[in-house]
From TrEMBL:
The gene is Cbn-str-48. Pfam families: 7TM_GPCR_Str. The chain crosses the membrane at residues 12-32, 44-67, 87-115, 127-146, 197-223, 243-267, 279-301. Keywords: Membrane, Transmembrane, Transmembrane helix. InterPro entries: 7TM_GPCR_serpentine_rcpt_Str. This is CBN-STR-48 protein. It comes from Caenorhabditis brenneri (Nematode worm). PANTHER family: SEVEN TM RECEPTOR-RELATED (PTHR46000).
Amino acid sequence: MARFYEITETFIKFGFVTVSITNSILILLTVFHIKRIIGTYKKMIITVALMGIMFSAIELIARPFVHNYNKGWMFFSLNTWLGASQLFLQISLAVYASFYLSMISFISVQFLFRYFTLTNPKIAKKFGGTGIIVWIIYPIVSGSFYGGPLFLFGMPDEYADEYFRKEILESYGLSIKDVPRFSIIAYGADGSLRPGAYFIITGALVMIIQYTIIIYCGVRMHLVMSRKFKNSSVPNKKLQKQFFRALVTQTIAPTILFVFPAAYVLLSPLLNIEMNFQTGWIYAALSLFPPIDSIALMCMVSEYRNVLKEQCKYLCCWTTERTVEQNHELRSST
């Protein structure tokens, strides 16, 4: 019977295939068929879709997994097919972690843009032109404040290796020295703070900043739309509401799938919470986030739905015509 951490590889592969298909469809529709989404927001949608594909590709390489043991956790790679060095896989793990936070940061950028589009179009225009550089760099910098501290405060030492050695051997049949890993232990044996505590605090602060932006802009957008759209004919108000619902859905999905469960795992060493189980299922669930993100947008925005229906009808008609032609050719040959 397959062990859980072995089954997660199937989830990761499924996530990669799914996001490659869904995000490619989203990009093609946005570039060639969608007419009402233009300018900066169009570029944002394409950028997020490309990030989703890259994120899943990095996940396939990094094969991330987490194991919580007592008052600490180990973030490590289960990649065995690549034959790469430990340093390469450690870098892959850090890039993977950074990428996730970058994607959350990008959602906060989208909320800011949609908020200013409704409340202050002059500021919204600054997101275009050279402003593109800013909203691309911001998520990268935010992500680096997660991946960087992981290298700075999470590198394994003798204390951490001894702490996790027996558990990793018994649970995974692996010698800890052979595993590409980061070890997060908040407190030493004497109760003093260890570097892992600083990583937890840094990661929590960066995540709080993103959700503060998302919640503030989300609440303000809802109030503005309720006030402006109630008794007036605002251009594209239906589309604006669809964008808002899509953004909310795109935020809720990763929050439920990953952020809430991960927050408990992330903070448990700092809060002195003891546990002993495989928490890597969180990353298995996270592999489904990018395709859900794209599907939410295509379902919520009516223009995407209409174009998809048209394309499906065209494909069905073309398939039917081809079948009729082939049957006719077969009859003619006989």
